[in-house]
Amino acid sequence: MPTDYVFWRDLENQFRELLGPIRLEATWYGGDSRWSRISINGPRDGPRDERKRKQLLILFEACAESAARAAGAPDTVEGWLDRLREESPHFRVFSAARKDDEGGWIQDLALASADYCPVCRNRAERSTAWRDHQAQFEMYAGQYPELRAIWRAAFAKWVFWNGSAPARREHQQGEDVFKAIAHKAAAGLSHLSVAGDGEPWCVWLGSMRQRGWGFRVTGNVGTKGGKPVEFVSKELPEGAAAETELTVADDWLEDGEIEQVFASSARFCEELAAHGEIAPKAADGETAAVPDGHTTEIPEQQIPPEVCAPTAPEGVGPDINERKAERKKLRDDYKAECKRAGVKVTDVIIAEAANPTTPNNKGWHSRSNIQKWLACDPKYEGTPDQRIRNVFLKKPHLSDPHA
After folding, report:
1. Is the per-residue pLDDT at 256 higher than 60?
2. Which three-class secondary structure state does DSSP give residue 151?
3. What is the pTM of this model?
């Protein structure tokens, strides 16, 4: 099934042709995790020809199945409705105060579908860009199979090793090639809250580390005042026991590594493509060469230094308290607004609205999901962060036309 610009543009037009006085509606029953039968509604003075109403439903179902299949969802009408429920602003959540009606509804399926097609179109284009980056990383995975990136948490630095030893001068070419490709790929991560504002290749590796993609924890290191404990120990009183060194640490960070950094990056691109993450677009005529005769479609650049230092690894940095305060204010303001409207909203209710249960998704059902977001847990950056913020933006618990 084609999923390019033309496909989604034509499908959007087909959905818009279904707009009119007759509306198709559907209700989601969260308690039973199922959709109702699609209902056909319209004004009293609208068309009453039952054949036209049925034809409208048949046309919509055909378009919905085609859209679901192209979007990677189960190729059923329900598969497409699930996509709309998860991502379309046209899906309205029932008030949380109505415990017997867990779920929501879409008032105009044709309009909701037409408005969602551009989202799918952009996602398809982004997926194509990520697959291009994937191919670039795969091109050199066999040539530099043992190149790996080591994360020094206490120093907030990445260093390269080749196999079991630090990379030597003869391995510099592999590093340079990787940094050049990662420089281009990292541009697609600019919308995410990635640890560090260092070189683009560090941002790329930092994103992989935050998401746990190919990153393996190899140990823990204690710090005090931003210094590793081995340096802090030099400032301890003479005769202090070795055990004392551990007690002075005020924070613990995780060292780790990404093995086979080219192959791991290629798989990371494949994952980003599958989820339609934002990918960069090259400017017209933009080409580049990587060192010593290697060529690929990447931007011309200077090779960055061997190591770089992101400013906020694992959420530790001068701005972490500001980020926590900003998130807490968003949550508290929303709860207060709901309370004034007579609606009690808890962290559990917010979590369930942010990531509802579907046949293919267990969803969130715990206050810990919101608590981890408030604590700036790296696993709750990117898409999870957007899901939670959408709740505060759309205010699903404050509007219920069915009430």
Report:
1. yes
2. strand
3. 0.47
Is the model more confident about 210 or about 284?
210
Q: What is residue 165's predicted lDDT score, i.e. its pLDDT? A: 67
Asked whether residue 133 is assigned to any structural domain, the reply reads no
Q: In the prediction, which pLDDT does 32 show?
A: 75
358 located within any domain: yes
What 3-state class would DSSP assign to 245? Answer: helix
130 is a domain residue: no
What pLDDT, in 10s, does the model give residues 270-292? 888 776 554 433 333 333 333 33
Instruction: Compute φ and ψ for 157, nearest 5 degrees.
Output: -135, 150
Q: Which residue has the higher pLDDT, 72 or 147?
A: 147
- Domain-located, residue 14: yes
CB-based contacts of 238, cutoff 8 Å, min separation 6: none
Residues 335 and 293 occupy one common structural domain: no
For residue 78, what pLDDT band results from cuts at 50, 70 and 90? Answer: very high
> In terms of domains, do 146 and 74 share one?
no
The rounded distance, in Å, linking the Cα atoms of 365 and 373 is 14
Task: Tell me the residue type at 35.
Answer: W
Q: Residue 44 is which amino acid?
A: R
Both 329 and 296 in a single domain? no
Which pLDDT does position 250 carry in this prediction? Answer: 59
User: Among 401, 403, 399, 397, which Cα is nearest to 346's?
Assistant: 397
Pairing state between β 215-224 and 165-166: unpaired
171 and 157 housed in the same domain:
yes
Beta bridge pairs of residue 227: 224
Is the domain of 193 the same as that of 296? yes
How many structural domains are present in the chain? Answer: 3
CA atoms within 13 Å, Cβ hemisphere of 270: 11
Handedness of CA 194, 195, 197, 202 (dihedral sign): negative
Q: Dig out the tokens for 283 from the structure.
A: 């400017």
- 309 and 324 part of one domain: no
Q: Are residues 44 and 77 in the same domain?
A: yes
231-244 pLDDT per residue, tens? 444 444 555 544 44
Contacts of 373 (CB under 8 A, 6+ apart): 327, 380, 384, 385, 388
